[in-house]
Amino acid sequence: MTIIEQARALGAAIQQDERYTRYNEAAQKSDTDTAIQNKIGEFNMLRQQLNVEMSKPDKDADKMTELDKNIRELYDEIMAMPAMVEFNSAKEDLDKLLQSVNYIITCAANGEDPMTCPEEPPHCSGSCASCGGCH
């Protein structure tokens, strides 16, 4: 089996993982949630209004501040909706899986044993005094 064939097999295995399934179900649910989609439409309209105001030579600072405030509030409202909370949680879990897979592959490409590579890179404290080196 070639490396590309193995990569395709890995891709198929990822698609069988519960995190992938959960992500796709959550994405479909949020994409078809009318309330979320209406709020996203409203959010995009406010962003467009802000962009128009920002491009004017005689900008209205108060109007821009108000639009920015409304955009932030609407964003928070969207992100708090149950289907969006579930989507973001599922996306985070899938992203962690993909980051682990990528880190193991990167370690192996750097000559480390793929069977003993950690699933995630060491967390950097910012101090190099006790560090074994970044990967």
Task: Briefly summarize what is shown.
It is built from five helices and no strands.
Q: What does this protein look like?
A:
- With 135 residues, the chain is an all-alpha fold.
- The chain has helices at residues 3-16, 18-31, 34-55, 61-80, 82-109.
- Helix 2 packs antiparallel against helix 5.
- The mean pLDDT is 92.
Proportion in helices: over 70%
Low-confidence stretches: none
Query: Which structural category do the helix and sheet elements fall into?
Result: mainly alpha
Query: How many angstroms separate the termini?
Result: 28 Å
Largest sheet: none
Total DSSP E strands: 0
> Can you count the helices?
5
Q: Give me the strand/helix succession.
A: HHHHH
> What proportion strand?
under 5%
Give the overall silhouette: elongated
Rg result: 22 Å
Mean pLDDT: 92
Any descriptors?
135 residues, mainly alpha, 5 helices, elongated
Write the layout of secondary structure elements.
Layout: H1 3-16, H2 18-31, H3 34-55, H4 61-80, H5 82-109
